[in-house]
Input
Amino acid sequence: GRGVMPSIVCSVEEVLNMGYVIAGEKVTSTFKIQNTSTLTLRYSIQLDSLSSTRDKDRQRLPSFIMSSLQRTEFVGTQNYNGLSVFSIFPTEGEIDAGKSQDFIVTFSPDHESLYYSDCLKVVLFGKKIAHVIHLKGAARDHPVFVEGGVPLDVPIESLAVTLPVSPHEALKGGNGLPLTLYYKTLQEPVKSILLILEYIEGESSPVPAMTELKVGAVQRAQFASKKNMEFSFDSLPLLQQKGFTIESAKGTVEPGQVKRISVSWMPPAD
Output
Protein backbone atom coordinates (compact mmCIF):
# COMPACT_ATOMS: atom_id res chain seq x y z
CA GLY A 1 0.00 0.00 0.00
CA ARG A 2 0.92 3.66 -0.18
CA GLY A 3 0.32 6.19 2.58
CA VAL A 4 -1.24 9.54 1.71
CA MET A 5 -0.72 12.65 3.82
CA PRO A 6 -3.86 14.82 4.17
CA SER A 7 -3.17 18.47 3.33
CA ILE A 8 -5.18 21.67 3.06
CA VAL A 9 -4.69 25.30 2.11
CA CYS A 10 -6.66 27.99 3.96
CA SER A 11 -7.37 31.47 2.58
CA VAL A 12 -6.72 32.93 6.07
CA GLU A 13 -3.23 32.28 7.38
CA GLU A 14 -3.26 33.17 11.08
CA VAL A 15 -5.65 35.97 12.07
CA LEU A 16 -9.19 36.80 10.96
CA ASN A 17 -10.03 40.27 12.25
CA MET A 18 -13.76 40.96 12.10
CA GLY A 19 -13.21 44.66 12.71
CA TYR A 20 -15.66 46.92 14.53
CA VAL A 21 -19.37 46.31 15.00
CA ILE A 22 -22.09 48.04 17.02
CA ALA A 23 -22.81 46.11 20.23
CA GLY A 24 -25.96 44.06 19.73
CA GLU A 25 -25.46 43.80 15.97
CA LYS A 26 -23.49 41.23 13.97
CA VAL A 27 -21.12 40.98 11.05
CA THR A 28 -20.01 38.03 8.92
CA SER A 29 -16.83 37.09 7.08
CA THR A 30 -15.88 34.10 4.95
CA PHE A 31 -12.81 32.00 4.39
CA LYS A 32 -12.05 29.04 2.13
CA ILE A 33 -10.34 25.70 2.75
CA GLN A 34 -9.01 23.74 -0.23
CA ASN A 35 -8.26 20.03 -0.08
CA THR A 36 -4.88 19.71 -1.81
CA SER A 37 -4.52 15.98 -1.12
CA THR A 38 -5.72 13.02 -3.18
CA LEU A 39 -8.25 11.70 -0.66
CA THR A 40 -11.54 12.94 0.78
CA LEU A 41 -11.01 14.80 4.05
CA ARG A 42 -13.45 14.58 6.94
CA TYR A 43 -13.21 17.79 8.95
CA SER A 44 -14.64 19.47 12.02
CA ILE A 45 -14.32 23.08 13.20
CA GLN A 46 -13.64 23.67 16.90
CA LEU A 47 -13.69 26.89 18.93
CA ASP A 48 -11.67 27.12 22.14
CA SER A 49 -14.56 28.96 23.83
CA LEU A 50 -16.75 25.86 23.29
CA SER A 51 -14.07 23.30 24.20
CA SER A 52 -15.16 20.40 26.40
CA THR A 53 -12.10 21.01 28.59
CA ARG A 54 -12.82 24.71 29.09
CA ASP A 55 -14.64 24.11 32.41
CA LYS A 56 -11.60 22.20 33.67
CA ASP A 57 -9.29 24.98 32.48
CA ARG A 58 -11.37 27.51 34.43
CA GLN A 59 -10.40 25.82 37.69
CA ARG A 60 -7.08 27.64 37.40
CA LEU A 61 -6.58 31.28 38.34
CA PRO A 62 -8.83 33.53 36.23
CA SER A 63 -7.02 35.19 33.32
CA PHE A 64 -7.96 38.68 34.43
CA ILE A 65 -5.89 38.38 37.64
CA MET A 66 -2.87 36.77 35.99
CA SER A 67 0.06 38.59 34.42
CA SER A 68 0.23 38.70 30.62
CA LEU A 69 3.25 36.36 30.69
CA GLN A 70 1.21 33.66 32.43
CA ARG A 71 -1.76 33.72 30.05
CA THR A 72 -1.87 30.88 27.56
CA GLU A 73 -5.46 30.88 26.32
CA PHE A 74 -6.62 33.01 23.43
CA VAL A 75 -10.28 33.23 24.42
CA GLY A 76 -11.04 36.87 25.20
CA THR A 77 -14.16 38.79 26.20
CA GLN A 78 -17.38 36.76 26.25
CA ASN A 79 -20.99 37.87 25.89
CA TYR A 80 -22.99 38.71 29.00
CA ASN A 81 -26.03 36.90 27.55
CA GLY A 82 -24.26 33.51 27.46
CA LEU A 83 -24.43 33.18 23.66
CA SER A 84 -21.26 32.61 21.65
CA VAL A 85 -19.43 35.69 20.44
CA PHE A 86 -18.16 33.87 17.34
CA SER A 87 -19.98 31.14 15.45
CA ILE A 88 -19.11 29.25 12.28
CA PHE A 89 -20.99 27.36 9.57
CA PRO A 90 -20.59 24.59 8.60
CA THR A 91 -18.93 22.96 11.61
CA GLU A 92 -18.28 19.53 10.09
CA GLY A 93 -18.39 17.67 6.81
CA GLU A 94 -16.21 16.32 4.02
CA ILE A 95 -14.13 17.96 1.30
CA ASP A 96 -13.45 15.85 -1.79
CA ALA A 97 -9.95 15.67 -3.24
CA GLY A 98 -9.07 18.87 -5.08
CA LYS A 99 -12.29 20.63 -3.97
CA SER A 100 -12.89 23.60 -1.69
CA GLN A 101 -15.33 24.52 1.07
CA ASP A 102 -16.45 28.02 2.09
CA PHE A 103 -16.98 28.80 5.79
CA ILE A 104 -18.96 31.69 7.28
CA VAL A 105 -17.83 33.25 10.56
CA THR A 106 -20.36 35.40 12.45
CA PHE A 107 -19.30 37.94 15.07
CA SER A 108 -22.14 38.83 17.48
CA PRO A 109 -20.98 40.87 20.51
CA ASP A 110 -23.53 42.06 23.07
CA HIS A 111 -21.54 44.83 24.81
CA GLU A 112 -18.71 47.26 24.12
CA SER A 113 -15.20 45.81 24.29
CA LEU A 114 -11.99 45.89 22.26
CA TYR A 115 -10.92 42.43 23.38
CA TYR A 116 -13.22 39.87 21.78
CA SER A 117 -11.17 36.90 20.60
CA ASP A 118 -11.30 33.14 20.12
CA CYS A 119 -9.24 30.36 18.59
CA LEU A 120 -10.62 28.35 15.67
CA LYS A 121 -9.11 24.96 14.87
CA VAL A 122 -9.60 22.87 11.73
CA VAL A 123 -9.43 19.21 12.80
CA LEU A 124 -9.12 16.38 10.27
CA PHE A 125 -10.50 12.90 10.95
CA GLY A 126 -11.20 13.89 14.56
CA LYS A 127 -7.50 13.88 15.45
CA LYS A 128 -5.15 16.08 13.46
CA ILE A 129 -5.20 19.87 13.91
CA ALA A 130 -4.51 20.98 10.36
CA HIS A 131 -4.92 24.75 10.75
CA VAL A 132 -5.44 27.36 13.48
CA ILE A 133 -7.05 30.78 13.04
CA HIS A 134 -7.15 33.47 15.72
CA LEU A 135 -10.48 35.32 15.61
CA LYS A 136 -10.60 38.94 16.76
CA GLY A 137 -13.21 41.65 16.89
CA ALA A 138 -14.24 44.84 18.67
CA ALA A 139 -17.64 46.27 19.60
CA ARG A 140 -18.69 49.87 20.13
CA ASP A 141 -21.85 51.36 21.61
CA HIS A 142 -21.89 54.23 19.11
CA PRO A 143 -21.13 54.55 15.37
CA VAL A 144 -18.27 57.01 16.00
CA PHE A 145 -15.47 56.13 18.40
CA VAL A 146 -12.17 57.51 19.69
CA GLU A 147 -9.15 55.46 20.76
CA GLY A 148 -5.69 56.21 22.07
CA GLY A 149 -3.77 57.04 25.18
CA VAL A 150 -3.34 55.04 28.35
CA PRO A 151 -5.75 52.07 28.63
CA LEU A 152 -8.35 52.75 31.33
CA ASP A 153 -9.85 49.27 31.09
CA VAL A 154 -8.44 45.72 31.20
CA PRO A 155 -7.62 43.36 28.29
CA ILE A 156 -9.13 40.38 30.13
CA GLU A 157 -12.63 40.91 31.51
CA SER A 158 -14.50 39.16 34.26
CA LEU A 159 -18.26 38.84 33.83
CA ALA A 160 -18.78 41.60 36.39
CA VAL A 161 -19.89 44.88 34.86
CA THR A 162 -17.37 47.42 36.14
CA LEU A 163 -16.95 51.13 35.54
CA PRO A 164 -13.77 52.33 33.79
CA VAL A 165 -11.01 53.93 35.82
CA SER A 166 -11.32 57.69 36.14
CA PRO A 167 -8.65 59.47 34.08
CA HIS A 168 -7.85 61.66 37.09
CA GLU A 169 -7.18 58.55 39.15
CA ALA A 170 -5.03 57.05 36.39
CA LEU A 171 -2.92 60.22 36.15
CA LYS A 172 -0.40 59.82 38.96
CA GLY A 173 1.95 62.61 37.96
CA GLY A 174 3.49 64.52 35.12
CA ASN A 175 1.54 66.27 32.37
CA GLY A 176 -1.45 64.55 30.87
CA LEU A 177 -4.47 65.47 28.82
CA PRO A 178 -7.74 63.90 30.04
CA LEU A 179 -10.37 64.02 27.30
CA THR A 180 -14.06 63.24 27.63
CA LEU A 181 -16.09 62.25 24.58
CA TYR A 182 -19.65 63.51 24.18
CA TYR A 183 -22.24 62.80 21.50
CA LYS A 184 -24.65 65.50 20.37
CA THR A 185 -27.64 63.22 20.97
CA LEU A 186 -26.60 62.50 24.59
CA GLN A 187 -26.18 64.84 27.53
CA GLU A 188 -23.87 62.67 29.62
CA PRO A 189 -20.24 61.76 28.81
CA VAL A 190 -19.81 58.29 27.35
CA LYS A 191 -16.06 57.88 27.03
CA SER A 192 -12.94 59.06 28.85
CA ILE A 193 -9.45 59.01 27.33
CA LEU A 194 -6.15 59.81 29.02
CA LEU A 195 -3.19 60.98 26.95
CA ILE A 196 0.20 61.24 28.68
CA LEU A 197 2.91 63.20 26.88
CA GLU A 198 6.47 63.18 28.22
CA TYR A 199 8.62 66.14 27.25
CA ILE A 200 12.40 65.66 27.42
CA GLU A 201 14.32 68.89 27.77
CA GLY A 202 17.64 69.00 25.94
CA GLU A 203 20.30 71.46 24.91
CA SER A 204 19.27 71.48 21.26
CA SER A 205 16.12 73.07 19.87
CA PRO A 206 13.05 71.87 21.83
CA VAL A 207 11.04 69.02 20.36
CA PRO A 208 7.41 68.72 21.50
CA ALA A 209 6.14 65.52 23.07
CA MET A 210 3.90 63.65 20.61
CA THR A 211 1.11 61.10 20.74
CA GLU A 212 -2.01 60.45 18.69
CA LEU A 213 -5.73 59.83 18.82
CA LYS A 214 -7.68 57.62 16.44
CA VAL A 215 -11.19 58.65 15.41
CA GLY A 216 -13.16 55.97 13.59
CA ALA A 217 -16.62 55.21 12.24
CA VAL A 218 -18.25 51.78 12.29
CA GLN A 219 -19.48 50.41 8.95
CA ARG A 220 -23.01 49.10 9.55
CA ALA A 221 -24.36 46.49 7.14
CA GLN A 222 -28.05 47.36 7.60
CA PHE A 223 -27.35 51.07 7.11
CA ALA A 224 -25.29 51.21 3.94
CA SER A 225 -24.93 54.99 4.13
CA LYS A 226 -21.90 56.56 2.49
CA LYS A 227 -22.30 59.74 4.59
CA ASN A 228 -19.15 60.75 6.42
CA MET A 229 -19.22 61.16 10.19
CA GLU A 230 -18.26 64.55 11.62
CA PHE A 231 -16.18 65.16 14.72
CA SER A 232 -14.77 68.21 16.50
CA PHE A 233 -12.78 69.18 19.60
CA ASP A 234 -14.03 71.86 21.97
CA SER A 235 -12.18 74.12 24.44
CA LEU A 236 -9.13 74.40 22.18
CA PRO A 237 -8.03 77.83 23.54
CA LEU A 238 -7.81 76.38 27.06
CA LEU A 239 -5.75 73.45 25.77
CA GLN A 240 -3.43 75.78 23.90
CA GLN A 241 -2.85 77.80 27.07
CA LYS A 242 -1.62 74.61 28.72
CA GLY A 243 0.72 73.85 25.81
CA PHE A 244 -1.36 71.26 23.96
CA THR A 245 -1.86 71.32 20.19
CA ILE A 246 -4.34 69.11 18.33
CA GLU A 247 -3.67 68.61 14.63
CA SER A 248 -7.30 68.79 13.47
CA ALA A 249 -9.88 70.75 15.45
CA LYS A 250 -12.62 69.14 13.39
CA GLY A 251 -13.04 66.83 10.42
CA THR A 252 -14.87 63.89 8.93
CA VAL A 253 -14.25 60.15 8.79
CA GLU A 254 -15.73 57.66 6.34
CA PRO A 255 -17.70 54.63 7.61
CA GLY A 256 -15.31 51.72 8.08
CA GLN A 257 -12.26 53.98 8.29
CA VAL A 258 -10.03 55.29 11.10
CA LYS A 259 -8.33 58.70 11.05
CA ARG A 260 -5.17 59.39 13.06
CA ILE A 261 -4.88 62.79 14.75
CA SER A 262 -1.57 63.90 16.25
CA VAL A 263 -1.46 65.63 19.64
CA SER A 264 1.62 67.50 20.83
CA TRP A 265 2.65 69.25 24.05
CA MET A 266 5.27 71.83 24.92
CA PRO A 267 5.71 73.24 28.43
CA PRO A 268 4.08 76.68 28.58
CA ALA A 269 6.48 79.61 28.86
CA ASP A 270 4.98 80.69 32.16
